[in-house]
C-alpha cells in the first residue's frame, strides 16, 4: 500500500536524499531557535530625528532646567554657613601647640580655644559638623574592617571578633568594637561658648555595661572603653550617636559629619550675632597624614544643607541645550533643507 504523502526534507532542512555537510552536527548544536526573539524579528521603534523633534526638545530642556537650577542655586546661597579651621598648622592658630605635641600615644588631652565672630545671626536650628580632609574612609580594606555582629549587639562576637578586623582584632584581649573604622573614631570634644555658662554633664551608672565587656579591651587608639562613650545607663554600649555617625564611611577624602544640633527653642535667633569661643579638647591628631580639621556651623533649607553643585549642574545642562537649539536653528535657517534624492538629476 502506497503512502498518501511524504516529507521532502530531512530534520536538518536539507532535501530528502541528500546528506548534511561535514560538521553540520556541530553547527546544528549552536543554531538559535527559530523564534522572534532569538532571530531578532521583534518589532522595534527607531526614532527619526528631524528638525521638528530635535529643536523643541532642546528648547524644552533649556526652559525647564534653567529656572530649576536658578531656584536651587539661590536656595543654597541663602543657607548660612560658617567654618572654623582648628588644625593648628600655622603658629598663629591657638591649637598649634596641641597639633605639634599631641599623638595617639598621649595620655593627657590637650585643650585650646579658638575665638571667632559671627557677622550675622543664625535663624532656625543650627547644625554643627566636624570636617576632615585627606582622610580616605573609602579605602576597601578600611571599609571592610569591622564586625557587624558586634555592631548588631551579638555578645558572642565580643570575645570572638571577625578576622576582617585585623590588625585591630585583639590586643591581649579581644577588641570591642574591633576594626580600623572604630579604632579611628573621631574623638575631639567641641564646645561652643557665647555668654551663657557651661552646662555640666551628668553620668549614669554603667555597671551593667562594664560586666558585659569585662572580657574585652578598648580599641588601641581610644582613650576610654566603649561603655564610657555614652552617659545613658540603658544603652547596650553601641547606642552612641557619635559612634554611629562615624561608622557610616564617607565616599570622598574631604567630608563632614554631624556632631551636634543646636535646636531653636525661642523666637530669638539660635546663634546671635557677635563673638564666640570654640573650646576644643584636642584628641585627634591629623598632621601625620597631612589632614585638616574644621568645625562647620550651618543652617538648612527644604533641600538640606548648603550644596550649590546641583543648581550649577541644572543651569549648565539647560544652558548648553538651549544654546545648541539656537545654533541648530541658525544652521537650518541659513542652509535650508537638504535636497532629497528625487531632486538630484540622473
TrEMBL record:
Any one of the GO CC terms: transport vesicle membrane
Membrane-spanning residues: 48-74, 309-331
Stretches for region Disordered: 1-33
One of the GO BP terms on file: phospholipid translocation
Organism: Anguilla anguilla
Protein name (Swiss-Prot/TrEMBL): Cell cycle control protein
Cell location: Apical cell membrane; Cytoplasmic vesicle, Secretory vesicle membrane; Golgi apparatus; Membrane
Keyword 4Fe-4S: no
Recorded family membership: Belongs to the CDC50/LEM3 family.
Pfam families referenced in this protein's UniProt entry, alphabetically: CDC50
Membrane-protein topology: Multi-pass membrane protein
Lineage: Eukaryota, Metazoa, Chordata, Craniata, Vertebrata
Keywords: Cell membrane, Cytoplasmic vesicle, Disulfide bond, Glycoprotein, Golgi apparatus, Lipid transport, Membrane, Transmembrane, Transmembrane helix, Transport
Primary location class: membrane
InterPro entries: CDC50/LEM3_fam (IPR005045)
Amino acid at each position: 500500500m502506497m503512502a498518501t504523502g511524504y516529507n521532502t526534507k530531512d530534520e536538518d532542512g536539507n532535501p530528502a536524499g541528500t546528506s548534511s555537510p561535514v560538521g553540520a552536527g556541530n553547527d546544528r548544536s549552536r543554531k538559535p531557535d527559530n523564534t522572534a526573539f532569538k532571530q531578532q524579528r521583534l518589532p522595534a521603534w527607531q526614532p527619526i530625528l528631524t528638525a521638528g523633534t530635535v529643536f523643541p526638545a532642546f528648547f524644552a530642556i533649556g526652559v525647564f532646567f534653567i529656572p530649576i537650577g536658578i531656584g536651587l542655586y539661590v536656595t543654597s546661597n541663602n543657607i548660612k554657613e560658617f567654618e572654623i579651621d582648628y588644625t593648628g598648622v600655622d603658629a598663629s592658630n591657638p591649637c598649634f601647640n596641641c597639633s605639634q605635641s599631641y599623638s595617639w600615644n598621649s595620655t593627657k588631652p590637650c585643650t585650646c580655644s579658638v575665638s571667632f565672630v559671627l557677622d550675622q545671626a543664625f535663624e532656625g536650628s543650627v547644625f554643627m559638623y566636624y570636617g576632615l580632609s585627606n582622610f580616605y574612609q573609602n579605602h576597601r580594606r578600611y571599609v571592610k574592617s569591622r564586625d557587624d555582629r558586634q555592631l548588631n549587639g551579638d555578645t558572642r562576637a565580643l570575645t570572638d571578633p571577625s578576622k576582617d578586623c585585623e590588625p585591630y582584632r585583639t590586643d591581649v584581649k579581644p577588641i570591642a568594637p574591633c576594626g580600623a573604622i572604630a579604632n579611628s573614631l573621631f574623638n575631639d570634644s567641641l564646645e561652643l561658648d557665647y555668654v551663657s555658662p557651661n552646662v555640666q554633664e551628668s553620668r549614669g551608672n554603667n555597671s551593667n555595661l562594664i560586666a558585659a565587656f569585662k572580657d574585652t579591651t578598648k580599641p588601641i587608639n581610644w582613650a576610654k572603653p566603649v561603655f564610657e562613650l555614652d552617659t545613658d545607663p540603658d544603652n547596650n554600649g553601641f547606642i552612641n550617636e557619635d559612634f554611629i555617625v562615624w561608622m557610616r564611611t564617607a565616599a570622598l577624602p574631604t567630608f563632614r559629619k554631624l556632631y551636634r544640633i543646636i535646636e531653636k527653642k525661642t523666637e530669638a535667633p539660635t546663634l546671635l550675632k557677635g563673638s564666640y569661643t570654640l573650646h576644643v579638647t584636642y584628641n585627634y591628631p591629623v598632621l601625620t597624614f597631612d589632614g585638616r580639621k574644621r568645625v562647620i556651623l550651618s543652617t538648612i533649607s527644604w533641600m538640606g544643607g548648603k550644596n550649590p553643585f546641583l543648581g550649577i549642574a541644572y543651569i549648565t545642562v539647560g544652558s548648553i541645550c538651549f544654546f545648541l537649539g539656537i545654533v541648530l536653528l541658525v544652521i537650518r535657517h541659513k542652509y535650508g533643507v537638504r535636497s532629497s534624492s528625487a531632486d538630484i538629476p540622473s
